Amino acid sequence: MAALVGRGVRDMLKRADFMTVPRRQRHKKKWAATEPKFPATRLALQNFDMAYSVQFGDLWPSIRVSLLSEQKYGALVNNFAARDRVSAELEQLSARDFVNEAIFHGEPEPESGQTAAPPPASWACSPNLRCFTFARGDVSRFPPARLGSLGVMDYYLMDAASLLPVLALGLQPGDTVLDLCAAPGGKTLALLQTGCCHNLAANDLSTSRAGRLQKVLHSYVPQDVRDRNRVRVTSWDGRKWGELEGDIYDRVLVDVPCTTDRHSLHEEENNIFQRSRKKERQMLPMLQGWTPCHQTRRPCCLFHLLTLTLTE
Ligand SMILES: C[S@@+](CC[C@H](N)C(=O)[O-])C[C@H]1O[C@@H](n2cnc3c(N)ncnc32)[C@H](O)[C@@H]1O
Q: Of 105, 136, 170, which marks where a domain is finished?
C-alpha cells in the first residue's frame, strides 16, 4: 500500500515537473534519434562473421584478416604501352608477374617450399597478361600509373584477384565477348590485354559509371586497337540483354553488383550496410541470381562473381 502511494506521489511530481516546461519545448523522447548509432562497418563485420564463418569454415579467420587489412594492388601491365620497359621497371621495384610465374615456372613458393599447382587449361590466352604484385608480407605500394611515350597509361592498378575471373573465362583467339556489368573497367581492360577479343561489348547499367569505363578505355587503349577489337560501350539493363541482342557471344563475363566487402568494412560513406540501404541489400541476391542465359539457347560461359551477398 505504502509503495502504491509512493509511486502515485512520484507520478504527480513528474507530471508537475512536466507542466513547468513550456509547451513548445516539450517533446516526446525519440528512441531512434537518441540511440547510439551502430556504424555500417560494424554491422557489415557482424554479418560477415555470421555468414562467412559457416561458408568458409577454417579459412574465414585469415580471409577476415585480409579483408580488414589495407588493400594490396596488382599492376596490370598495359600491352598497348611499352610493355617490356614497363615490366622491367616493375621488376626493379621487386614486384613479380604472378600470371607468368604460375604458367611457365610453377616455381616453389618461397614460404612453403611447395610447388604451385599448374594453372588450369582455361588460362590459354593468359601469357599475354602480365600482372605484378609484391610478395606476401611486402606492403609496398606501386607509384601511380603514368602516361607513357606511346600516349597511353603504362599500367592499371587493380585488385590482383580481379584478374582470376578473366583467366577463368578461357578466352580463345577471335572470341566475341560480352562484359555485362563492366564499369569502371578493370576486367574489360584485362580482356583486351589478352589480345583474344575479336569483338568486345562492354556494358553497365549506370551511365555515370559507363562514362568512367569510357575514360579508362581512352586512357589505356589506342583508338585503332579499339576499332580493331570492335570495342563498344553501352549502358543497358543487363537483365534485358537477351531481348536486345540475343545469343551471339562466345564468352560472357557477369561481374554482378555485390556487397563490396572490403569497402563495407572500411568506409561509412556509400556503405551498403547503412540502415537506409537495407532494402537494396536484401534485393541483391535476386539481382545477382538473374542470368541473361535464361534468354539464350546456347549455354554460354558465365561467371557470377562475388555472389556472397549478405542480408540482415
Ligand atoms: C562489381 S561492379 C563491376 C566491376 C567491373 N566489372 C570492373 O572490373 O571494374 C558491378 C557493376 O554492375 C552494374 N550493374 C548493376 N545492375 C546492373 C544491371 N541490371 N545491368 C548492368 N549492369 C548493372 C553496376 O553499375 C556496377 O558498375
A: 170
Give 243-269 pLDDT, tens digit per residue. 888 789 999 999 999 999 999 999 999
Atom of ligand 1 nearest to the CA of 239: 19
How confident is the model over 73-125, as pLDDT tens digits?
999 999 999 999 999 999 999 999 998 887 766 544 555 555 556 666 656 55
Give the whole-angstrom CA distance, residue 114 versus residue 51. Answer: 31
Identify the domain containing residue 138 by its residue range. Answer: 72-170
- State the distance between the two ends of the chain, measured CA to CA, in whole angstroms: 48
Number of residues that this document lists for the chain = 312
Residue to mutate, 255, 261, 287, ligand 1, most ligand atoms under 8 Å from C-beta: 255
Q: Evaluate: CB of 195 within 6 angstroms of ligand 1.
A: no
Contact 198, 150 (CB under 8 A): no
| Distance from residue 181's CA to the centre of ligand 1 (Å) | 4
Q: Read off the pLDDT of residues 134-150 as tens digits, 9 standing for 90 and up.
A: 998 888 999 999 998 88
Helices 40-56 and 60-68 sit at what angle, rounded to 10 degrees?
150
- Is 304 near ligand 1, meaning CB less than 6 Å away? no
Q: How many domains does the chain have?
A: 2
Does 205 reside within a domain? yes
